[in-house]
Amino acid sequence: MSESPAGGNWPRTIAVALTGASGIQYGLRLLQCLLEAGVRVYLLLSQAGQVVLKMEAGLEVPSRPAEAERFFSAHLGAAPGQLRVFGRQQWTAPVASGSHPPDAMVICPCTTGTLARIAAGLSQDLIDRAADVALKERRPLILVLRETPLTVIHLENMLRLARAGAVIMPANPGFYCHPQSVAELVDFMVARVLDHLQVPQALMPRWGDPPPDSD
Q: Cis bond leading into 149, ω under 30°?
């Protein structure tokens, strides 16, 4: 159990990083689902991710971590102490040390720049360092890459990280569930992430299962 700052206990703690790739809705929906599942979330936000939140979701997130924490907690309906936000250079954050790593980490969406720094072992900010910690401590690290087309450099970085133990999960929603909206496309990808985190989800029917309205 992970003890919350408010005195409660959370079954798991998962770090989520939002970077500056397009597709911020994937990250927001993931945050919502994790909080609804009763998971404690450590949220990391890059400067470019803050810009994309405003461009793609219309959310003007405060720059100071404490204010951003209050903003996201209210926006996503987090329980007291369930969501923590850390600054980009906050090296005293739990995610910066292998002595106190989260149970898993997801970067969603993940830029190719973030991918490259993690692949090279460079920790320029807390997101890079937290990913490095996840790898060295053998904790699940999921990178939801959002870029196209991909260069040889991108592909080599993905291969290097896959060999190091990361899960490379490009934002490629499927269509066999006959999605009727953008929200359903987002849910497809978020469901795949939740499956890899072993967090229960009912966002989409599994392959081979009957549709929800069938007998």
A: yes
